[in-house]
Specification:
- This protein starts with 6 loop residues before the first helix and ends with a helix.
- By secondary structure, the protein is mostly helical.
- Helix content is 78%, strand content 0%.
- The protein has a single domain, classed as Up-down Bundle (Ferritin), CATH 1.20.1260.10.
- The longest helix is centred in the C-terminal third of the chain and has 35 residues.
Length: 154
């Protein structure tokens, strides 16, 4: 189904999204030929893993409660990136997937921050959204740089 049934459901979705991001970013780190870019991907992997752990804690402690009315306003497909990563995914395609994932998780964190009343949790979710936006911009820049260098050498 394309709906979230509960706060736990949307948080589980977010935890899974961050795990997928972690898997992709560790793979991009290995594929990267530039040591600085490799370090950036490794840093992002650490950050999304931290997000994942915090989201799992929110879920376990039932710290985020999204109203049924709010849950009815969104669909999973709004935040889901359909293209799963595969072992033969090319570097530019993986970067494109990373950009789409960060955009989707940015939107999800904004939704969750608006849905919660707890100011401390709201601030953490807004920080996570800021991280996602920063990741997205970094991936877009890497995409442009790699694309230009690829086409200049071919």
């Amino acid at each position: 189904m394309d709906i979230f049934n509960s706060s736990e459901d949307i948080l589980e979705f977010a935890v899974n999204a961050e795990q997928k991001a972690y898997n992709l970013y560790t793979r991009l780190a290995v594929q990267s030929v530039n040591p600085q870019t490799q370090a950036l991907f490794e840093k992002f992997a650490v950050e999304v893993n931290r997000h994942k752990l915090k989201l799992a804690k929110f879920k376990l402690d039932k710290e985020i409660q999204v109203s049924d009315a709010a849950l009815k306003t969104i669909k999973k497909s709004t935040f889901d990136v359909v293209n799963e990563y595969s072992t033969d995914l090319k570097y530019l395609d993986a970067l494109s997937l990373a950009i789409k994932r960060e955009k989707a998780i940015y939107q999800l964190y904004n939704f969750l921050s608006e849905a919660t009343e707890n100011e401390e949790i709201k601030a953490q979710l807004q920080n996570f959204a800021t991280d996602a936006a920063r990741h997205m911009v970094a991936f877009e820049l890497e995409y442009e740089i790699f694309e230009k260098s690829f086409f200049q050498t071919n």
